[in-house]
Amino acid sequence: MRKIRWGVLGNAKIARVKVIPAMQHCEFAEVVAVASRDGGYGPYEKLLADPRIDAIYNPLPNHLHVPWSIRAAEAGKHVLCEKPIAMTAAEARELIAARDRTGVKVGEAFMSRTHPQWIRAREIARSGEIGEVRLVSGFFGYFNRDANNIRNKVEMGGGALMDLGCYPITHSRWIFGEEPLRVGASMERDPEFGTDRLTSAILDFPSGRCVFTVATQLVWYQRMHILGTKGRIEIEIPFNAPPDRPTRIFVNDSVEEFPVCDQYTIQADLFSRAILENGEVPVPLEDAEKNMRVIDRIRMAANERG
């Protein structure tokens, strides 16, 4: 089976440090070009016009996700776009329309949802082993006050909710298999940047609740818990799972360990196979748009609190 030939839009750190190195180990994917405004292969337009390129990986800042993904789709390229997929749910629907119009495959790059530790956690949660799942909770944060960093620029879609909150939102929706009925939230904004630096939210699902806090100016830490009526699951490193050592989840008083793997390699291979076999991409746009709806509702709820 041939490999899908990938082009990368821009030289974002996530592409340079994580995604491109991981894709070098793929069975069904290979990176053949990286476009840059500052040189290298050449401008983004040249990449989209290259007939050798089958698919585009879009790691551009959040405000450029939809515009350049639409341009890639209109150029006949399949698109794997970084999360969060858009600035708003309405913008995500524009990308869905472009996908439907062009017939290419477009998906959101939630690599953590392809990692074996999350596949297993979801399997346990849905098996009844820990009873009825009633609560998904967690924290994800780091400290960054660099004024030049895109994560601290409101106009580029920066802030804790967009950069980090999208993770517990997508994973809680995935675990419950439901959409939240009600949303409550509180935000603390940086007085200089205007971005939310500490955001907490409560998502009320039909079957249970998700409670999470994300922060861009606290100690680096991440952890997720899934609690049921008979037991619990704890994911030790839920989002930035290391590619060079095993990972663990705790199920009640036992530990399940997963062999070394790279979730970015898995993601690229699954997406490439979806292209080759005309299957479903790991995280389709319909799911991405629903995630953006929750993000929109959290913003609204936080604004109503003042």
What would you say this structure looks like, in words?
Strand 1 (4-9), helix 1 (13-23) and strand 2 (29-35) form a beta-alpha-beta unit. With 306 residues, the protein is α/β, with parallel strands linked by helices. The radius of gyration is 19 Å and the shape is globular. Helix 3 (65-74) packs parallel to helix 4 (89-102). The strands form two sheets. Strands 7-8-9-6-10-11-12-13 form an eight-stranded mixed β-sheet, with helices on one face. It has eight helices and 13 strands. It has two domains: 4-110 and 266-282, NAD(P)-binding Rossmann-like Domain (Rossmann fold), CATH 3.40.50; 116-260, Dihydrodipicolinate Reductase, domain 2 (2-Layer Sandwich). The mean pLDDT is 97. It starts with a strand and ends with a helix. It has helices at residues 13-23, 44-49, 65-74, 89-102, 116-127, 160-176, 263-277, 285-305; strands spanning 4-9, 29-35, 55-58, 78-82, 106-109, 133-143, 182-189, 196-204, 209-215, 217-228, 232-235, 247-251, 254-258. The protein is 35% helix and 28% strand.
